[in-house]
Write a structure and sequence with these properties.
By secondary structure, the protein is α/β, with parallel strands linked by helices. It has helices at residues 19-33, 55-62, 82-93, 116-130, 184-194, 212-226, 240-249, 255-273, 293-300, 316-325, 329-332, 354-361, 366-375, and strands at residues 2-8, 39-43, 48-52, 70-77, 100-107, 135-136, 143-150, 153-162, 174-178, 198-205, 232-238, 278-280, 307-308, 378-382.
C-alpha cells in the first residue's frame, strides 16, 4: 500500500476535446510550483497522482493552484485481491476516531468482478465486524470512506481538501494587468488567473513623486500573485515625465482622464510586444471619478485591445474580503502613494467629453514621451531570490 496525493479536476472535465491540453497545462503548472520538492506526478483524464515525502509543503502549493477542484491524501493498492483490500482498509480505519461511517465506491474498471454497491456493502460489513460501537450512516457519516477501482489499482481516501478551482493558468492566453498599490488591482489579477489567464503586470512609477517603498509594495503584491501562477513578470514604466507634462499643460479636472488614457496606450503597446491578448485592471464602476461609465468609455477609446475588469461589479467590501482571502490586503494598505493618487485634483471630471480630452492631449507631445517611457522600461521576473532594491 503506497501513500500519495490524489487530485480531482472538477471544471476541467467539461472541456471534452481540449481536456488533454487543460490537464497537461495543470501538470506543468504543478511541476513549476513543486520545482524545489521531491515528487513524482502521474496523470490521466480522470485523476492526477503525486508521490512525495514532503506532504505539508506540497499540499500548501496545491491549495494555491488553479484548476484543482479537490485534493485527497490517499493510498494505492497494486493488487486486485479483495481480501487484501479489506485488510488494508481496516488497518487505516482503525487509526481514526468515529461513531458512524459510510463506504462510497466508484468503479471505473468495469472488469472488476463486483459492482460498486457490492464492494461498499462487503467492505462496510467487514468494518462493522471488526470495530465495536460503530454504525453505518448513509446520510451524514462522521467518516466517509472513498474507494476507487481503476485499471487494476485501487485507491482509498477519507478527508478532502477543497481546491481553488478555476482553469489552469495559461490555458486562456496572456493578459497585461495594470497593477497599482491599491486593493482592487491585485484582486482583479487573481480573478483573471482563475479563468486561466497568464499574467504579466505593468506598474507606472513616478519618482520622485512616488517612493521606493511604493515600488516595493507593488512588487510584494506581484510576489503574492505569483504564488497562484508559479511566476510572473512586472514591467516598470517610468511615468514621471508624462505625469508632469499633464500637470503643466492640461486643465486640472481632466488630469486623471488624460493620465489614464496615457496608461492605456502604454499598456496596449506592452501587451502587443509580449503577445498578450487583453488588458486587465481593477476598475470598479462608480468607485472613483475615472471609473464612471462615461469616464471608462472616454479612456477606453484610446485603444483597440479588449479590457477586462473582473471587479467592475463588486462593491468595496466584497473586494476587501477577497483581498484578505488571497493575502494581498495587508500589503495594499501600506501608506505609500502610487502615481494614481498623486496630483489628484479636488474636483475631477466625472463625465468627461472625448473631444475635450483629445484637444487637451494636443497641448504636449505625448507620443514622444510614451515612446521614451516604453523604451526605458524595467522588467522584473517574480518571484525573486534577492532583494528588490538590488534591481531598482
Amino acid at each position: 500500500m503506497k501513500k500519495l496525493i490524489i487530485i480531482k479536476y472538477g471544471e476541467l472535465t467539461t472541456k471534452h476535446d481540449n481536456i488533454n491540453f487543460f490537464i497537461k497545462t495543470l501538470k506543468d503548472n504543478i511541476e513549476t510550483s513543486l520545482s524545489n520538492t521531491n515528487h513524482r506526478i502521474i496523470y490521466d483524464v480522470g485523476r492526477m497522482f503525486i508521490e512525495t515525502n514532503d506532504y505539508d509543503l506540497v499540499l500548501s502549493k496545491l491549495t494555491n493552484t488553479f484548476g484543482i477542484h479537490e485534493i485527497n491524501i490517499g493510498y494505492e493498492l497494486e493488487t486486485d485481491d479483495f481480501d487484501s483490500l479489506k485488510d488494508n482498509l481496516l488497518s487505516l480505519v482503525k487509526e481514526k476516531e468515529f461513531k458512524t461511517f459510510k463506504v462510497q465506491t466508484k468503479r471505473s474498471n468495469k472488469k472488476y468482478p463486483m459492482d460498486s454497491m457490492e464492494v461498499s456493502r462487503k467492505l462496510g460489513a467487514h468494518i462493522l465486524k471488526n470495530i465495536d460501537n460503530i454504525s453505518v450512516d448513509v446520510n451524514n457519516p462522521e467518516l466517509l470512506i472513498n474507494v476507487e477501482i481503476r485499471n487494476k489499482k485501487i485507491y482509498l481516501y477519507f478527508d478532502k481538501i477543497k481546491g481553488i478551482g478555476g482553469y489552469p493558468v495559461g490555458v486562456a492566453g496572456k493578459g497585461i494587468l495594470m497593477l497599482s498599490g491599491g486593493i482592487d488591482s491585485p484582486v482583479a489579477g487573481y480573478l483573471a488567473m482563475k479563468r486561466g489567464i497568464r499574467l504579466e503586470c505593468i506598474y507606472f512609477d513616478s519618482p520622485p513623486h512616488t517612493s521606493e517603498n511604493a515600488r516595493i509594495k507593488v512588487l510584494d503584491l506581484a510576489n503574492v500573485l505569483s504564488t497562484y501562477s508559479g511566476y510572473l513578470k512586472v514591467h516598470i514604466i517610468r511615468f514621471t515625465d508624462i505625469q508632469e507634462a499633464i500637470y503643466k499643460n492640461c486643465p486640472k479636472e481632466y488630469m486623471i482622464t488624460i493620465m489614464r488614457r496615457m496608461m492605456y496606450r502604454i499598456a496596449e503597446s506592452i501587451a502587443h510586444k509580449n503577445n498578450a491578448k487583453v488588458i486587465i485592471n481593477g476598475e470598479s464602476i462608480g468607485q472613483v471619478a475615472s471609473q464612471t461609465l462615461t469616464s471608462m468609455s472616454v479612456i477606453n477609446e484610446t485603444i483597440k485591445m479588449p479590457v477586462i475588469r473582473p471587479v467592475s461589479c463588486f462593491d468595496k467590501i466584497e473586494i476587501i474580503d477577497l483581498a484578505k482571502k488571497i493575502n494581498t490586503y495587508d500589503i495594499s494598505i501600506r501608506p505609500f502613494e502610487d502615481c494614481c493618487t498623486i496630483f489628484v485634483p479636488e474636483h475631477p471630471v466625472i463625465n468627461p467629453e472625448l473631444s475635450l480630452a483629445e484637444e487637451y492631449e494636443k497641448l504636449f507631445d505625448y507620443e514622444d514621451l510614451i515612446h521614451k517611457a516604453i523604451k526605458n522600461e524595467t522588467v522584473i521576473k517574480i518571484p525573486l531570490e534577492n532583494k528588490y532594491n538590488d534591481l531598482l
